[in-house]
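Example S7 (structure tokens).
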């Protein structure tokens, strides 16, 4: 029988194509690896902006003290907290701006000669209230304590929309970084190429806690809280950017 001429012809050809392809791919890989990499420089810039807070967030709460049973503790808590919420709303605060911050129902014990003696239950609930009219912050605190809240305070001032001052801070940071890049390039005797990297950091600054006042059984004087001045001051918004340029 004669040998298959097609098979004997194709096989060497196929082998040659495969080997040639491998050499081509290898050459492309070597060429890519050996391509010159552009030198780069990275610079950072900082920016700041200031804005007057337009929101006050306050905490108000009720602590029942010792009650004979868990049910009684909850009854006392509900009765007082319902009044507190009603009075807060009467100051113009909307439902969406009132949320529960903490809630506890705990047994209470006395310790005598190393023994744990049950003495009833105590319930606590605190609300986080957002006041959008800063002039009413003190009035909201006073109304809440007058209604039965015996925990009040932890006032913090924030911005409802920090985007605008953050944009200003970022713009200042970018301008500073660009100026640094130009100076550095001049000192190095090179020219800036295209921008190939950008990073951003920064934040809104720190919240400003203004006051804490706690008491039991209505010991917090609501009239005093209503008269307390709560200056909001300014908030500092910061931005930090990193720019990376190719250099020529």
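Recovered sequence:
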């Amino acid at each position: 029988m004669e040998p298959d001429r097609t098979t004997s012809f194709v096989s060497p050809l196929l082998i040659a194509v495969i080997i040639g392809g491998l050499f081509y791919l290898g050459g492309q890989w070597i060429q890519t690896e050996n391509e010159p990499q552009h030198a780069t420089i990275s610079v950072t810039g900082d920016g700041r902006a200031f804005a007057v807070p337009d929101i006050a967030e306050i905490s108000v709460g009720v602590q029942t003290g010792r009650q004979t049973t868990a049910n009684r503790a909850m009854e006392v808590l509900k009765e007082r907290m319902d009044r507190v919420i009603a009075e807060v709303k009467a100051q113009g605060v909307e439902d969406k701006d009132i949320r529960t911050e903490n809630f506890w129902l705990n047994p209470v014990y006395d310790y005598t000669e190393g023994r744990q003696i049950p003495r009833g239950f105590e319930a606590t609930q605190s609300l986080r209230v957002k006041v959008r009219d800063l002039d009413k912050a003190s009035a909201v605190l006073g109304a809440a304590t007058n209604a039965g809240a015996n925990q009040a305070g932890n006032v913090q001032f924030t911005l409802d929309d920090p985007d605008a001052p953050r944009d200003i801070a970022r713009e200042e940071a970018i301008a500073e970084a660009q100026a640094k890049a130009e100076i550095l390039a001049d000192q190095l005797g090179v020219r800036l190429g295209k921008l190939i990297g950008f990073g951003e950091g920064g934040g809104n600054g720190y919240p400003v806690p203004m006051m804490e006042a706690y008491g039991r059984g209505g010991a917090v004087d609501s009239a005093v809280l209503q008269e307390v001045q709560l200056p909001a001051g300014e908030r500092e918004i910061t931005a930090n950017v990193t720019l990376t340029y190719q250099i020529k």
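Notes on this example. The longest strand covers residues 115-131.
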